[in-house]
Prior knowledge:
This protein has about 160 residues and is an alpha+beta fold. It has a single domain, classed as Calycin beta-barrel core domain (Lipocalin), CATH 2.40.128. Helices cover about 20% and strands about 50% of the residues. It has 4 helices and 9 strands, in the order αβαβββββββααβ. An 8-stranded antiparallel beta barrel has the order 1-2-3-4-5-6-7-8. The radius of gyration is 15 Å and the shape is globular.
Amino acid sequence: AALIPFSRNDFLGKWYSMGFHSTNKTDEENFKKSHCSVAEYSASGDNGMTTKIQYTVDGKQINREVSYKLEDPAVGKYKVGAEGHPISYDISILCSDYKNFAVLYGCSDLADGHKSDFAMVLHRDRSHNYDNLMAQDDVKSCLQDKMKLAPSDMHKNPQE
């Protein structure tokens, strides 16, 4: 399910983080600690988005609001930043059918030459079965074609 052209309006709404992959071990540990991650995307300006993110780490609920500024509409690439947070990310919405799943890729240059990069598989339904999602042909082909990843490279992001 390619995104050409990307439709921000079809993408808006709630998305639940179902799975992730990161080559950065610090990112990976942070993702493993987070549960019940949900992001609600709303329109902002001509092509931007504002996102309210809620997740739980070690039993503590965390709320963040971030802004998405469109950089490349052809590929759904956004510059993402949070007020008071020194790091900004490039987020690309690689694939989506807009109704069920989306695959996102994020990266950022951190201090001391370190890099943060991650892939996330999202779904509209928090209770959707993770294994069934990862077995979908569109999800598998997106991970393989866009990220050179297999579903088995992903880690489940618990929604309970």
